[in-house]
């Protein structure tokens, strides 16, 4: 499989979006960053010929995990503007080395030249259709996904209901 | 069986929430109790004709397949007992009907997640059910919505996310060499590339993720905060079974069914297990908060499980499986008693308690039984499981690890004796003159759990023949 410049660009955009998510001062922007990261990752997975994985990524990560993540964080005590700026400074100090670590890790992995010294499986002669995979091979995971969504919904109901009462 | 333990609770939860008026809320407790009771009965009746009859037909209807063995049945039994205990204790700690309904919904979801982990034979499905359990845990830890609960939940969320990344990266690498995600396919693929650096790296990543999930040293930072900050029924669920199923059971299953017991894996498990035993025991010694002490004690006891697995022998696995069951029972019992103490005294600080066994005799007596089992005092169940693990260590010539395991039991005895002295023995502290015994839900549950601890120890030959002997088959 050839990795094109578009794929590499998408990878770069995804990393930037992920960094923005972690280092941004606004919770809302962080959420948008997370959704963007997930969306770019979905495109990347589609381009790498794994539509099933892309669908799962899009549905689970972009939707549910974001909701659970935000609902948990948003229940913490709201900060004043001054505290937000102070916290943002500290966060920048804390994560300033993150891009550097990423680059060094990438260089390290290239220099290490870890050999692909494993047996590669033969691709199936007749690939299964998406329908066949979803309904016959991975139907237990579909139930799993339904349960995850249900868990997320209960999480929002449990953690947000009281919040609304407080807000009033 | 997957249908009855996964789909029935799933559709049941949906139905409870769709019922008009308050009917769903009123029957939720009994529905959940029924599910957990059936689960306990099914796990005990392993191999019964019911398995190949009605349950099989039920599964065929949904085209689901279960490949269970005795390790699965023991774990399902633990999940059933601990979930039922958590449910019963919630009845006297969460009084509000609406809140109780929310708790029961998430408890059932958590139980579905754990049952799924135990019943699947596919690494991706395993990951899906690990996530279900994790999401349910985040919500349950933050259930009381106070700052400590949110902090504990947030820490667990962050570390769990790291574990997820590690495990997903590992699955991705393993998929490069395997044509599928089923355990048997993966096992063959890993065996073919046994000396590959990439495969070793992938296995290391997955093990690290599981160490985080299991709260093992040095990945244990989240565990004391989560256990101590969570409401009592949630602490029971987390300490009793959640971390063991997500971390330890998964580790046992994957090492025996996929990764294999290679020397590096065994050495890593022995090292991490021993570190957890020592660090957990010493940290527990320094605690004044009852729940935090129990949390550190859990780290130490889970260390024994990992050391048992690390021997890579049938005896070690049997010991680990039996200790998994024993720890689930006696730690649940201790957390049930901590719930009673917290409710009646309004504190978790051991310094502020004293002489409580005069006022709470059932709580005091059952605590002693749980403590003695945790320390490995014969003939209680904890003695036999620790003995199996230590014999397995000795047989595989890991003498130093065996000695450390024995010495750490003395440390366990030290911190539990300190706990008993501070809380239950001595003169009754002023202010507790009018203290009453815990509610009947607490005392009856504690008595039953203490009974199980004694019975499993006294009837060890039966337990060994009925549950443990067949565990040797999982080592391939």
Return the average pLDDT of chain A rounded to an integer.
73
What does the overall shape of chain A look like?
A: flat
Order of helices and strands of chain B: HHHHHHHHHHHHHHHHHHHH
Strand tally of chain A? 0
Q: Catalogue the unreliable spans of chain A.
A: none
**Separation of the first and last Cα atoms of chain A:** 56 Å
Radius of gyration of chain B: 21 Å
Give the structural class of chain B: mainly alpha
Largest sheet of chain A: none
Which regions of chain B are unreliable across 5 or more consecutive residues at pLDDT < 50?
A: none
Largest interface between protein chains, with number of residues from each side? A-B, 37 and 48 residues
* Rg over alpha carbons of chain A: 20 Å
Strand content of chain A: under 5%
Separation of the first and last Cα atoms of chain B: 25 Å
Averaged pLDDT of chain B, please? 88
Major beta sheet of chain B, specifics? none
Explain how this protein is built:
Chain A has 168 residues and is mainly α. Chain A has a domain at 5-76 and 115-127. Helices cover 78% and strands 0% of the residues of chain A. Chain A contains seven helices and no strands. Chain A has helices at residues 5-23, 27-47, 51-74, 81-95, 98-112, 130-137, 139-167. Chain A is flat. Chain B has 476 residues and is mainly α. Chain B has a domain at 261-476. Chain B has helices spanning 2-18, 23-44, 49-52, 54-62, 70-93, 97-119, 123-141, 147-177, 183-192, 197-214, 222-229, 232-259, 263-285, 290-310, 314-345, 361-375, 381-395, 399-423, 440-458, 460-468. The A-B interface holds A 68-69, 72-73, 75-77, 114-122, 124, 136, 138-141, 143-148, 150-152, 154-155, 157-159, 162 and B 2, 6-7, 10, 13-14, 63-64, 102, 105-106, 109, 112-113, 116, 120, 122, 124-125, 128-129, 131-132, 135-136, 138-139, 142-143, 145, 147, 150, 153-154, 157, 176-179, 189, 192-193, 195-199, 201.
């Amino acid at each position: 499989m050839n990795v094109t410049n578009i794929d590499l660009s998408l990878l770069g955009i995804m990393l930037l979006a992920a960094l923005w998510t972690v280092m941004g001062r606004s919770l809302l922007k962080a959420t948008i960053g997370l959704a963007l990261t997930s969306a770019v990752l979905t495109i990347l997975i589609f381009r790498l010929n794994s539509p099933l994985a892309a669908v799962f990524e899009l549905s689970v990560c972009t939707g549910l995990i974001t909701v659970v993540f935000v609902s948990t964080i948003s229940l913490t005590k709201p900060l004043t503007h001054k505290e937000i700026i102070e916290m943002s400074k500290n966060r920048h100090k804390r994560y300033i080395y993150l891009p550097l670590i990423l680059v060094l890790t990438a260089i390290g992995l290239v220099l290490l030249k870890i050999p692909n010294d494993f047996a590669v499986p033969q691709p199936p002669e007749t690939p299964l259709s998406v329908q066949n995979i979803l309904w016959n091979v991975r139907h237990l995971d579909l139930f799993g996904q339904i349960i995850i969504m249900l868990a997320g919904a209960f999480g929002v109901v449990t953690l947000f209901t009281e919040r609304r009462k407080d807000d009033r | 069986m997957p249908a009855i333990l996964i789909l029935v609770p799933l559709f049941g939860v949906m139905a409870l929430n769709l019922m008009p008026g308050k009917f769903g809320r009123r029957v939720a407790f009994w529905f959940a109790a029924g599910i957990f009771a059936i689960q306990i009965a099914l796990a005990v009746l392993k191999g019964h004709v019911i398995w190949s009859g009605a349950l099989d037909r039920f599964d065929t209807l949904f085209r689901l397949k279960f490949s269970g063995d005795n390790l699965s049945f023991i774990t399902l039994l633990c999940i059933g007992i601990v979930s039922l205990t958590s449910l019963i204790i919630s009845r006297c700690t969460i009084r509000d009907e609406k809140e109780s309904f929310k708790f029961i919904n998430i408890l059932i979801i958590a139980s579905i997640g754990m049952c799924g982990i135990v019943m699947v034979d596919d690494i991706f499905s395993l990951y899906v059910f690990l996530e279900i359990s994790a999401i349910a845990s985040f919500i349950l830890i933050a259930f009381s919505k106070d700052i400590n609960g949110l902090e504990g939940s947030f820490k667990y969320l962050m570390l769990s996310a790291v574990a997820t990344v590690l495990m997903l990266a590992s699955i991705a690498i393993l998929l490069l060499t395997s044509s599928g995600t089923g355990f048997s396919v993966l096992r063959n693929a890993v065996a073919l590339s046994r000396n590959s650096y990439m495969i070793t790296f992938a296995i290391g990543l997955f093990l690290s993720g599981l160490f985080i999930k299991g709260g093992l040293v040095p990945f244990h930072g989240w565990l004391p905060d989560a256990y101590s900050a969570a409401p009592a029924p949630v602490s029971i669920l987390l300490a009793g079974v959640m971390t063991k199923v997500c971390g330890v059971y998964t580790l046992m299953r994957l090492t025996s069914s996929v990764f294999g017991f290679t020397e590096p894996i065994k050495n890593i498990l022995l090292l991490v297990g021993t570190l957890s035993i020592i660090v957990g025991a010493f940290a527990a010694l320094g605690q004044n908060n009852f729940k935090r002490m129990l949390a550190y004690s859990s780290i130490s006891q889970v260390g024994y499980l990992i050391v048992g697995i690390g021997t890579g022998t049938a005896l070690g696995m049997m010991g680990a499986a039996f200790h998994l069951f024993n720890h689930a029972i006696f730690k649940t019992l201790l957390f049930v008693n901590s719930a009673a103490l917290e409710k009646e005294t309004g504190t978790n600080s051991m310094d502020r308690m004293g002489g409580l066994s005069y006022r709470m005799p059932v709580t005091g007596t059952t605590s002693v039984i749980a403590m003695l089992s945790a320390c490995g005092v014969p003939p209680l169940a904890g003695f036999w499981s620790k003995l199996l693990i230590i014999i397995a260590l000795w047989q595989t010539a890991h003498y130093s690890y065996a000695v450390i395991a024995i010495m750490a039991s003395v440390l366990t005895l030290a911190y539990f004796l300190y706990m008993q002295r501070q809380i239950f023995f001595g003169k009754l502290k002023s202010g507790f003159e009018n203290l009453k015994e815990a509610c009947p839900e607490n005392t009856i549950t504690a008595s039953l759990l203490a009974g199980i601890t004694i019975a499993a120890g006294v009837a060890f030959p039966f337990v060994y023949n009925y549950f443990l002997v067949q565990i040797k088959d999982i080592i391939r």
